[in-house]
Amino acid sequence: MAIPNTTLLQHLDEGSELVTLTSLWRHCLGNQDDIVVYLHSKGSFHPSAENDQLRRFITRGALSPECASLPSTCDVCASRMSPVPHPHTSGNMFLARCSYVSRLMAPDPFRIAMTRIARSQGVREGELPCRGMGRFAAEHWVYSHPDVRPCDLYPDPAYVWRYFPVPSGDFERALSAAPRFNLTTYIIRGAYCSRGHWGQRIEHRLDEYLAVYNMTPTPSWWGWKLYAGSGRQQALDLISGKGRGVNELRPSRARGLGRGSKWAGLSEGRKKVP
Fold first, then answer.
1. From the centroid of its chain, how far is CA 240?
2. How far is it, in rounded angstroms, from Cα 44 to Cα 48?
3. Which end of the chain, N or C, is less packed with Cβ atoms under 10 Å?
4. Would you say 105 and 65 are in contact if contact means Cβ atoms under 8 Å apart?
């Protein structure tokens, strides 16, 4: 069925979110000044009332006037961005600046890079959703770069990630830099991913940035504030060479990145610690 004011670029009998995300990424490479919106048929493989409610919630955010009027301090806008268990928007719909998207690793090489990390660490199948790996790399992708400046809309801390309690119907929208709450707000007690403390330690993010992008965050990175007092000193020791990360990942070979695996081996220019 034709959708008004749209152009059908491609039809595939089989595929995943990575197909459309790759088209979005390629568009951004040649259109740095554009703003793009990513939507998909969330729940089409697993129809349920919960998927329907989440799809409506994140679609409203991605298409909202607030996101469309994206301030210069934001690169990605969604109904909710959560740093736990990895930076993501549950359900994966967002608006983003092409100038930022073009800095990301292409979606499928990113999935491969995350798979290499999983194999190097012996990550179990059940832990992949907690790490933004496997098929969950698509959800993690847009927030994976250390330069990202995320914003979100939903001001109620009752919902942070997963399916419950997603607000039904329209919701109050108040755009703010994300993560907008303190770290403990995002920790869902009893959730499987909370048992491994994924996303709760600064080392998780710093190690992954080095492994995937061979980069460390700038002083304006959102994580310095979020993780203050929660492993920050260990991270500073890590970068200075005094300590080890809890996971000390192997850098990915995707895009020909270097093999230096320790923070102490970084050049002075990469040690961008506020």
1. 26
2. 9
3. N
4. no
Strand partners, 88: 82
Say what the pTM is: 0.82
Could you report the per-residue pLDDT of 108-157, keeping only the tens digit for each?
A: 999 999 999 999 988 888 899 999 999 999 999 999 999 999 999 999 99
CB 206 within 8 A of CB 237: no
Tell me the C-alpha distance between 23 and 267, whole Å: 35
CB-based contact 51:58 (threshold 8 Å): no
| Residue 267: alpha-carbon gap to chain centroid | 26
Backbone dihedral angles phi then psi of residue 53, each to the nearest 5 degrees: -65, -45
How many CB atoms are located within 10 Å of the residue 97 CB? 20
Contacts of 82 (CB under 8 A, 6+ apart): 88, 89, 90, 160, 161, 179, 186, 199
> How far apart (Å, rounded) are the C-alpha atoms in residues 97 and 37?
9
How many Å is the Cα radius of gyration of the chain? 18
**Distance, CA of 164 to CA of 64 (rounded, Å):** 22
